[in-house]
């Protein structure tokens, strides 16, 4: 079957400057379908939500899948060759065995053409009927390709039937359609790893390509002497590499990783993954692709298409206006059991209540200082305002190449209690800010 699916995912969509995240590379491979024939059951959703374009695109995808399998098994005159077979189950409120395992491409196409949309979604019955199409005595590899556009609405828990299929040695692939699909459910039903056995098509027009890619990968030989070289963009450093589930991973430098696998999927379907931790070392906000490039080779000439995930970086600067007091270091030396230490003189400064404010200034241009004025008024029961304080702050310029957010923290106002008693008090704060530097030479 060759290299089934290759993928690359990250565990976070957004991080702050200096934070890190994990990247996972994953592969799965299976034996050559000509020397290791397969029994494949297409399990197709025909519920009411599939009406119109979704069902028509799913039919085109299923037919393309069958044609590719027929060609890769050296089938002739509309037949699937070399002992491989394909059957079909469709489902809505209940599932039906539309066609037993067969080598006839024409019969499969007729069964696909006969599908019509209607009813609810019963995944459990579909997995049960699909399992029943397989001959337990057959030595062929057993594969279910499940397609659905919705979540379970009727029937029992499909995860039990899906697990039963996997326990029987059936390889389960899941194809989902639409942004509302329950990806966690598909991951639960499919053979592990999820990243190589689950595909989600955002739109119906994407289904044909997904079915074709899966058929091409199923029909290729297993992969041997795999070499994967991962090159990250310069804004990212690899800071930790976990042991892969297969092969060996070597850190060439801060940005380059090499993963070698002697063989994968030589006698049966096999998945593997490599996880490593990456740190953002740039100083600019924005959306950045993690990869510069990734290279894959093996002896069989398989082609791996790894995703290139992007991550959003937030480099908001944080400037404390009133820094916290400097702590004093007190050290016991050796066996010293008692020490007397004078902390020095301190001036009583914060009398009464203290109000601490913070604010974020959005999109400050590079190399420009900002002046910030904050006024604080107290409001009495009649709505009259009394001035209680004002602070003027100068925010230093930053040198990033793009505009940045800056957060001011620790802006404190001391609010004495005039009557000496604690009670409810109401304040309003106003902020005025503008650039100090407007293209002047100094």
How do you describe this structure in short?
By secondary structure, the chain is an alpha/beta fold.
- Low-pLDDT stretches are none
Question: How much strand?
Answer: 35-45%
Strands across the major sheet, in which order? 6-5-4-7-8-9
- Largest beta-sheet details: 6 strands, mixed
Distance between the termini: 69 Å
Question: What's the topology here?
Answer:
Blueprint: E1 2-10, E2 14-16, E3 20-30, E4 38-45, H1 53-72, E5 85-91, E6 95-102, H2 105-113, H3 123-133, E7 141-148, H4 158-167, E8 170-177, H5 183-189, H6 194-197, E9 198-201, H7 207-218, E10 223-232, E11 236-241, E12 248-253, E13 256-264, E14 270-280, E15 286-289, E16 291-297, E17 310-314, E18 317-320, E19 353-364, E20 370-379, E21 385-395, E22 404-415, E23 426-435
Helix pairs in contact: 1-2, 1-7, 3-4
Q: If you had to describe this structure to a student in words, what would you say it looks like?
A:
There is one protein chain. With 442 residues, the chain is an alpha/beta fold. It has helices at residues 53-72, 105-113, 123-133, 158-167, 183-189, 194-197, 207-218; strands at 2-10, 14-16, 20-30, 38-45, 85-91, 95-102, 141-148, 170-177, 198-201, 223-232, 236-241, 248-253, 256-264, 270-280, 286-289, 291-297, 310-314, 317-320, 353-364, 370-379, 385-395, 404-415, 426-435. Strand 4, helix 1 and strand 5 form a beta-alpha-beta unit. The longest helix has 20 residues, at 53-72.
């Amino acid at each position: 079957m060759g290299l089934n699916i290759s993928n690359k995912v990250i565990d976070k969509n957004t991080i702050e400057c200096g934070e890190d995240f994990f990247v996972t590379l994953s592969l799965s491979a299976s034996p050559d379908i000509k020397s290791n024939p397969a029994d494949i059951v297409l399990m197709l959703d025909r519920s009411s939500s599939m009406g119109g374009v979704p069902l028509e695109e799913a039919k085109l995808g299923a037919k393309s899948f069958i044609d590719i399998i027929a060609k890769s098994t050296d089938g002739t005159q509309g037949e699937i060759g070399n002992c491989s077979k394909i059957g079909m189950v469709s489902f809505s409120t209940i599932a039906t065995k539309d066609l037993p395992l067969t080598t006839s491409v024409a019969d499969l196409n007729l069964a696909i053409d006969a599908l019509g949309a209607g009813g609810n979604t019963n995944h459990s019955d579909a997995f049960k009927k699909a399992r029943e199409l397989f001959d337990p005595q057959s030595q062929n590899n057993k594969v279910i390709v499940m397609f659905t556009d919705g979540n379970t609405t009727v029937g029992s828990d499909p995860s039990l039937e899906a697990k039963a299929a996997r326990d029987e040695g059936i390889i389960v692939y899941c194809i989902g359609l639409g942004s509302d699909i329950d990806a966690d459910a598909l991951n639960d039903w499919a053979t592990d790893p999820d990243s190589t056995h689950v595909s989600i098509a955002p739109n119906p027009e994407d289904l044909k390509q997904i079915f074709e890619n899966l058929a091409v990968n199923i029909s290729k030989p297993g992969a041997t002497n795999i070499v994967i070289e991962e090159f990250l963009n310069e804004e990212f450093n690899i800071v930790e590499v976990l042991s892969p589930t297969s092969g060996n991973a070597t850190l060439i430098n801060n940005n380059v990783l090499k993963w070698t696998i002697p063989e994968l999927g030589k006698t049966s379907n096999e998945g593997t993954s490599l996880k490593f931790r990456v740190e953002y070392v740039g100083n600019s906000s924005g959306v950045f692709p993690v990869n510069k490039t990734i290279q894959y080779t093996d002896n069989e000439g398989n082609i791996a298409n790894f995703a290139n995930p992007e991550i959003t970086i937030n480099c908001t600067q944080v400037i404390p206006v009133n820094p916290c007091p400097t702590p004093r270091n007190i050290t016991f030396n050796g066996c010293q059991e008692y020490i007397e230490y004078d902390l020095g003189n301190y001036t009583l400064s914060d009398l009464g209540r203290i109000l601490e404010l913070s604010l974020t200034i959005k999109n400050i241009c590079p190399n420009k200082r900002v002046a910030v004025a904050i006024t604080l008024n107290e409001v009495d029961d009649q709505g009259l305002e009394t001035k209680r304080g004002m602070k003027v702050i100068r925010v230093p310029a930053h040198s990033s190449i793009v505009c940045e957010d800056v957060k001011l923290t620790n802006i404190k106002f001391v609010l004495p209690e005039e009557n000496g008693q604690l009670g409810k008090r109401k304040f309003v704060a106003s902020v005025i800010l503008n650039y100090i530097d407007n293209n002047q030479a100094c």
